[in-house]
Amino acid sequence: MKKHLIYFLILLILSFAIAGCNAAEEEVVTVGMMTMVSHPSLDAISQGVKDKLAEAGYIVGENLELLEGNAEGDIATLSTIVQQFIDADVDLIVATTTPALQAAYNATKETGSPPIIFNGVSNPYAAGIANAPNDHPAWVLGNQLLDPVKEAMDLIILLKPGASVIGLIYNPAEANAVYLVELAQKEAGARGLKLELATVSNSSEVQTAAEALASRNLDAYLAISDNTVTSGFEALVQVANDNDILVVGTSASMPPRGAAASYGIDPYQEGLDSGQLVVDYLKGDLDLAKTEIQIQDAVLLTVNPSAAQEQGVTLSDEIVEKADNVIE
Q1: DSSP notation for 188-206
Q2: Helix crossing, 77-87 with 98-108: angle to 10°?
Q3: Which stretch of DSSP H or E encloses residue 324?
Q4: Would you say residue 186 has pLDDT above 50?
Q5: Cα(265)–Cα(126) distance, rounded to whole angstroms?
Q6: HSE on the CB side for 93, CA within 13 Å?
């Protein structure tokens, strides 16, 4: 009788062990991360998401399968990427950049799945995704990463008193860029500045556009979070250096690449914050439908004194001391 009881207990323990293994296998989640293009700012956002997942215990190869799709600047490719994610039955899509969010939304709006968490998006309202922070698709949530255009414009005036003509390059196919250009026009008008615009359709056109603007007696370039232009940022910087034109950006990732200064968002923090949304959703602690879209406010003053010198500007000790980050 005791032997039978022992055998029964052993079988019971084994059954629980097997069930536990099966449960562990079922806990693997699949996340699809998609972006329009790769450049330092977007890479920092993606890394922030990955680091937040790892911090929460989601490890690739153990309990996390991570699928990554990069359209390499081709907006049409984003639709293919999101369809691959849907076919792979991902648990969640992380859409980085406005075009990626638009593609993910368009592919899921009939079914309302898989859920989407976005980042690197300047204005989800102008992009046609949401109507208000508390009025958005039930399966879509993220943080609005709004470029501090007003502050960046003031920074140009501070670094180059008497500046009157500002150049700005953008891709009109990016809804985020169009919105930021409208903000820049408003802020330039309020300060009595002339804003000269040039458009591009891919990063290889940035140099030509920058040269065209340089011929219009520019005092400075304002670099916004336009993914196409940011991909060709070094070409813009080279033209600026050759013509002693100041470059001021709206992302903390720009001074390390040659801008004299930026008053802008910390992209890595944007990744960490949106990564926390991802973690909270995967753990069942976040209701996407009932959560409001927040504005990313991790804004930093970053300066690069050497780059400024290349552009004919000397940064004062006061400005350098005030900066959150100084690029040596």
Answers
A1: HHHTT-EEEEEE-SSGGGH
A2: 50
A3: none
A4: yes
A5: 19
A6: 33
Radius of gyration of the chain (CA): 24
Q: Which amino acid is at 44?
A: A
Q: What tens digit of pLDDT does each residue of 45-72 get? A: 999 999 999 999 999 999 999 999 999 9
**Which fold, 29-145+267-296?**
Rossmann fold (3.40.50)
Q: Which residue(s) pair with 325 in the sheet?
A: 302
pLDDT at 21 exceeding the cut of 60: no
Quote the CA–CA distance of 246 and 225 in Å, as a whole number: 17
Tokens of 245: 């034109």
Q: What is the pTM of this model?
A: 0.80
For the chain, domain boundaries:
29-145+267-296, 149-265+300-326
Spatial separation of the C-alpha atoms in residues 178 and 249, rounded to whole Å: 16
Q: Does domain 149-265+300-326 have CATH number 3.40.50.2300?
A: yes
29-145+267-296 and 149-265+300-326: identical CATH topology: yes
